[in-house]
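Let us practice reading a record.
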Amino acid sequence: MNDAGAQKQNEIARVLALAPVVAVIVIDDATQAVPLARALVAGGIRALEVTLRTSAALDAIHAIAAEVEDAVIGAGTVLAPRDIAAAGRAGARFGVSPGASARLLDAAEDGELPFLPGAATASEVMVLAERGYRHQKFFPAELAGGAALLRALASPLPNVRFCPTGGIGLVNAESYLHLPNVAAIGGSWLTPKALLDAGDWSEVTALARAAAALGRA
């Protein structure tokens, strides 16, 4: 990885250091994006990952980037080179993928968007590390082996830090955050669909505040 790639990894490190939790957001209505982002930021969660799973996602990213200054907005479920380009045009400041392919990694390295690729096994982690990715998403965290697997990877792969996502909530969050190789966790529990549909932003802020108070290693 060249100097530009290393700088992009440094930016990922800064994003993951903002709070113990990165909010993972699935949004169906882009008009909810700005009040949702403001509610999360008010609770201390600034790194927001809007997943590219709905037709509203790119509009939501654009709105948050334009109107919520303290939010650090990213695009999740980045699956193809076109997603990286579209996320950057919308104003995303980082991209996240559930896995990785050579084609996707090539596009990420050619572009300007800091990228957090996903891995679920030691071999996948090693392949990404060889390409210079010292920060990786661990997905699907609970199904792939959970905190126990990450603990086992810490000794042989000490230079890689993870953002585990998938099946994590307040009940098990600190079992991950207390590991030395976990930089932050991804959490969708901060933005349940029922609260978004109800416009209950005060409750979103309460959830964010509890997440921001979680301890890290």
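A brief commentary: The chain has eleven helices and nine strands.
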